[in-house]
Structures are given as C-alpha cells and as structure tokens.
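User: Could you check the structure of this?
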Amino acid sequence: MSSQPVEATAASTAASKGNVLVEITDLAKAYQRDAQRVDVFEHVTLNILRGEFLALMGPSGSGKSTLLNILAGLDRPDTGSVVVDGKDITRMSNKQLAAWRSTEIGFIFQFYNLLPVLTAYQNVELPLLLTHLSKKQRREHVMTMLEVVGLTDRAEHFPRQLSGGQQQRVGIARAIVSDPSIILGDEPTGDLDSKSANEILTLMQRLNEEFNKTILMVTHDGHAAERAHEVMHLDKGILHR
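Assistant: Sure, the predicted structure tokens are below.
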C-alpha cells in the first residue's frame, strides 16, 4: 500500500484535531545488572495525538517493550513524566494505576495471553469484571466486540479450539472491550503466519480509521510498520521520529 497518502491524511487529520493524548517528557530508565548499571534509554520525549497509528521499531534490547510498559503503567521510569489525557500516571499509586489501566489501556500481546480454561467470551469479559456494569451490559459489550473482530460464532470456543489468528482476534476484542484511550501492541503479529498477520493488521487499521483508536505498535516487521501513519525508531537509547 502507498504510505505517502496515508501519512499526509493522518498528518492533516491530527493537525485539525490538535489533540495531544499522550505527552512523554524527558523519560529515562535504567536497570541494575549485578554491579553494572544498564541504561535502557534517556531523555525520551514524544507526543502522541488522538487518532494516530504509530509503529515503533528498533533492535532487540533497545527498550521498545520497556517504553510500552511504562506507557501502560506496568513499569515506572526513573525520571521524566508520562501524561495521558491530562493525567500524570508517573505520580499515581499502584492502586490508582491498576484502576486507570483497566479503563484507559488496551494491551495486545504477541502470545495472546488468553486464559486457556476460559472461553473466548469469558476472556473478552475479564476486564469488565472490574467495572460496575451489570451482567447484561457486560454481555452486550462483549458480543459487540466479538462482532467487530468477526468471532461471534466462536464465543463459546476455548483458546485451544482457535487458530493463532483467531486467538489474537480474541486478544484484540479483550483489549478494546472497555473502550480504552489508547491501544498498545507488543509485536501483535510476531507469532502469526503472513496471512493471519495481514488480517490482524487490517483489523488494527480498521480500529484506527473507523473507531478513531489511538495505537502504538512495537514491531520488528517492516511490512507491519507500513500500516502505521508513522514509523519511529528506538536505537541506543535514542528515539528517532
């Protein structure tokens, strides 16, 4: 697909909205490995506008997943701030983060992370069990999301009864069932064959274009990255946009 028209359209759309959803400012993260300090990245600054679909690439160990985990509130930076929709998540307690994450973040994992003892329906319903929705309301939400990903006829199937692509569709339905502000994908096509990967990427594009979902996707696959409006690179602790 031609990337230039998509980029131009995305840029003009984002500019017209002028809405910054995520503000990452001067972010730094390091780990202690025995006696050695390992800097993952320093001084990472990034704004993500509502409705953007961004791809993040870089070599293994460059900090892509760490950045994603910090943005999801699963990890904390050493310094810097992450403000999502006006809320500084780096200042939240663990309890506040858990509550915020359950409604604002949709996470799509490489290996699906479905619970094998639960049906597709029950896996998608999981995030809603933390809300005050009634059983009837939860069912409406779950069936709507399964319809979006084309799996209403697989609602009562267990993960072992589904193909890899179908399992990832369940994972996407679970990620969007609470109507999150941003969808984070950590190598969402990394465990799929090319046909299934293309179907998942087309679905993610649809979520972005039809449902105006903001998406940040970590990927090693250049073909997958082409589906995004813009490709960023994280290498040796430096983010290039």
